[in-house]
Design a protein that fits this description.
The protein is an alpha/beta fold and about 280 residues long. The protein contains ten helices and twelve strands. The strands form three sheets. The protein has a six-stranded mixed sheet, sandwiched between helices. The chain is globular and about 60 Å long.
Length: about 280
């Protein structure tokens, strides 16, 4: 992958949740969750639906205000920082972002440059380079002039990811970024995100429902169960059959990918017994 390497990409930014609690009505979604995101690493948030992983992502992105605890960006409460300053450090791609009617792919991706634009909102050469690189990285450059609404689901998702990449922030948060993609593009997008960490020093956090995709690509994993962190750490250490059984209430067999050595989990049918290992 080739693209611009601005100062913001090489900047190290810390991001952490400290005893974060969040309730929706009477339902407590997050229960004193603490999690420190490792800089320059790809971290996957994993757990059953409703376990709190997407809610934590929203709290980290300042989309929601915790009822208790604090999210810290560079050691300071994120809610006390100016919006434009936060947007230069952190980009977020929600699961179902609203889309303006009639907007083209280029126009959508260019919105990622808002935190860097001047008072007149004119694109600089650096803006155009970043937009072009983001479209090239995600494979949407060939239909830059097409309306986003006329694209396939996978093409739309890649256009949204390009917008987030164009923002050129050191931290990138994505909620289920592969959910609308076929297998080929799932793998390409996750390889791209991993490349952003390893070659460009970006910090990437993704909420994923596909356990095996997370285990195959993430440097670190944070497991959620019923609004709490059940376990966190390097994928090779934390992603075990015992943890999967406890988090998802299913028994699994564990295979090793012969190429990468990473675990692959195969659910057992009901009545087939407990977990080995």
């Amino acid at each position: 992958m080739h693209g611009p390497q601005s100062g913001s990409q090489r900047q190290t930014v810390s991001l952490a949740a400290r005893d974060v609690t969040f309730s929706y009505g009477k339902a407590e979604i997050l229960k004193q969750v603490s999690a420190a995101i490792s800089p320059g690493r790809l971290t996957a948030l994993v757990g059953p639906n409703g376990s709190g992983k997407s809610t934590l992502l929203s709290a980290l992105a300042r989309f929601i205000t915790p009822s208790g605890g604090v999210v810290e960006l560079d050691g300071q409460p994120i809610l006390s920082q100016a919006s434009r300053a936060v947007a230069r450090k952190l980009a977020i791609l929600p699961q179902s972002p609203p889309m303006p009617e009639g907007i083209t792919v280029f126009e959508l991706v260019s919105r990622g440059r808002f935190p860097h634009s001047g008072l007149l909102g004119l694109w600089s050469e650096a803006d155009l380079v970043a937009i072009d690189a983001a479209m090239a990285m995600t494979g949407v450059k060939d239909f830059a002039d097409r309306p986003v609404g006329g694209l396939s689901g996978g093409q739309r998702q890649r256009a949204w990811i390009a917008m987030a990449l164009a923002q050129e922030t050191p931290v990138l948060l994505l909620d289920e970024p592969t959910s609308a993609l076929d297998l080929r593009y799932q793998l390409e997008i996750l390889a791209l995100l991993r490349d952003l960490c390893r070659q460009h020093g970006r910090t990437v956090v993704i909420a994923l429902h596909d356990l095996n995709l997370a285990a195959a690509h993430a440097d670190e994993m944070i497991f959620f169960r019923q609004g709490k962190v059940h376990g966190a750490g390097a994928t090779s250490d934390i992603c075990t059959a015992a943890v999967i059984e406890a988090v998802f209430d299913i028994a699994v067999d564990v295979l090793n990918d012969l190429r990468t050595g990473r675990p692959v989990f195969v659910p057992r049918l009901p009545g087939e017994g407990g977990v080995d290992g």
